[in-house]
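Researcher: Quick test of sequence recovery. Tokens follow.
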């Protein structure tokens, strides 16, 4: 059922890097919730695996001296969803972690595997995009820090080179401080379903809470890789934290995204969902930031 040529269990990060050098064809396995499915489906028949599961140096969620939130690549979504550091600083990531798969899956699926599979539907990715996360890669030549926008190259492809391991996801203080956000996953089922579309927003309001100083809006499944919407962000910047601004930003988002028709949903439905989720995530972010509590949903579509 599982056609595996060899499985090497790394005892340390250096050992894992040595194993990857010795076995250039080997694939890294962390929680295995993507890799094992691919092997079972025959896509990786006869593969060689290097397991990083036992590397405790890739675990831990910490707030570093400079305020950077550091999430070890092997952290499970159960831990991330419950972490006080994540809930206090990047609450939208805890929300994303909490809607991945079901409880058993969240215990084994890692954040590293979620962003290294390169897929656009990865639930953590749009929030990490919206918070300008930085990927920490380790290879034989040392550490490489790669902004998440450069990490995603094309559908299913990341900028990790063979022999490199993602060791942590970093969210610098300037990216999360004074920002409040919200993530919504739209899927056909409540659990164990891949997102039809995911949307993550966060805002920084002016000291008086009347103006959106900065909006960051990101999507999953709105293009081949997770993406930001610069036009939505520009439409809200410096504008009143009002329903009118929120609707304008949501309309502008539709100019940036390129969703596809798939068996899950048509392009037209995805555009409609993208508009609606942008409004809902921005509105909730404004509320969480202490902005207008009387924001009321306006009815109607993007036109
Ligand atoms: C039933 C089911 C439901 C699911 N539901 C969801 C869902 O709702 N939302 C969602 O986003 N995903 C979902 N997934 C997909 C999957 O669980 C996640 O993408 C998960 O986060 C993958 O993590 P993992 O540790 O299991 O990765 P693995 O399967 O171990 O690895 C995934 C990929 O990343 C690479 N990799 C892993 N860790 C590293 C690292 N540290 N450095 C370099 N490369 C690495 C591997 O080589 C492989 O290519 C689901 C999967 C299943 C089976």
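Model:
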């Amino acid at each position: 059922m599982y056609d595996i040529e060899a499985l090497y269990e790394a005892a340390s990060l250096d050992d894992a890097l040595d194993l990857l050098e010795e076995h250039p064809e080997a694939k890294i396995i962390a929680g295995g919730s993507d890799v094992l499915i691919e092997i079972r489906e025959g896509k990786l028949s006869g593969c060689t695996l290097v397991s990083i599961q036992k590397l405790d140096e890739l675990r831990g969620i910490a707030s570093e001296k400079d305020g950077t939130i550091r999430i070890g690549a092997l952290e499970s979504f159960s831990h991330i969803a419950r972490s006080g550091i994540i809930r206090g600083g990047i609450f939208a990531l805890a929300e994303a972690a909490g809607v991945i798969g079901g409880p058993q899956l969240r215990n084994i699926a890692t954040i590293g595997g979620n962003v290294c599979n390169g897929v656009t539907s990865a639930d953590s990715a749009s929030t990490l995009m919206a918070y300008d996360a930085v990927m920490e890669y380790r290879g034989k030549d040392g550490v490489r820090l790669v902004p998440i926008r450069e990490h995603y190259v094309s559908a299913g492809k990341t900028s990790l080179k063979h022999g490199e391991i993602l060791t942590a996801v970093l969210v610098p203080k300037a990216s999360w401080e004074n920002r409040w956000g919200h993530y919504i996953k739209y899927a056909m089922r409540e659990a164990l379903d891949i997102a039809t579309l995911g949307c993550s927003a966060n805002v920084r309001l002016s000291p008086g809470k009347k103006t959106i100083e900065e909006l960051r809006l990101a999507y999953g499944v709105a293009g081949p890789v997770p993406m930001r919407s610069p036009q939505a962000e520009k439409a809200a910047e410096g504008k009143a934290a009002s329903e009118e601004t929120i609707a304008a930003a949501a309309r502008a988002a539709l100019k940036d995204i390129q969703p596809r028709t798939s068996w899950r949903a048509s392009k037209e439905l995805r555009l409609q969902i993208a508009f609606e989720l942008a409004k809902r995530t921005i509105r909730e972010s404004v509320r969480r930031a202490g902005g207008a509590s009387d924001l009321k949903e306006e009815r109607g579509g993007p036109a």
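Residues 4-51 form a domain with the Uridine Diphospho-n-acetylenolpyruvylglucosamine Reductase; domain 2 fold (CATH 3.30.43.10).
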